[in-house]
Design a protein that fits this description.
With 120 residues, the chain is of the alpha+beta class. The protein has one domain. The protein is 26% helix and 28% strand. The strands form two sheets. Strands 2-3-4-7 form a four-stranded antiparallel β-sheet, with helices on one face. Strands 5-1-6 form a three-stranded antiparallel β-sheet. It is globular and about 40 Å long.
Length: 120
Amino acid sequence: MSGYYHTPESTIYRRISDELVVIELQSGRFFYFNPPTEKLLDFFKEARSLPEFVDGAGLTEKEPEKQHLEKFCQFLLEKGILENVGSASEFAFVGTVDYGRPELIREGERTLDEITFLCP
């Protein structure tokens, strides 16, 4: 995977208990991830590349974890949770990432349109 990725404004997320709940507003789909996924989404709030994340996490290019991240980011792109952008943010990332393996727990059974919100 090459290029730069960004967490768009149509992706909102919040940690609830031991899960990260993500709603992709354009599709209305809910997703449930493990907490380390939040660090990945936070990292991509600025347009950055996956190699920058891998370097910041101290992972080597040949590790199976890098392959997992490539597949995971591809899934996020397909679902609209991340978007591919043409160029990086004006400041290159310099630093470290506290890495934990991001994983999908489950997708929501309903879309935002199918849920009725009741107000007292």
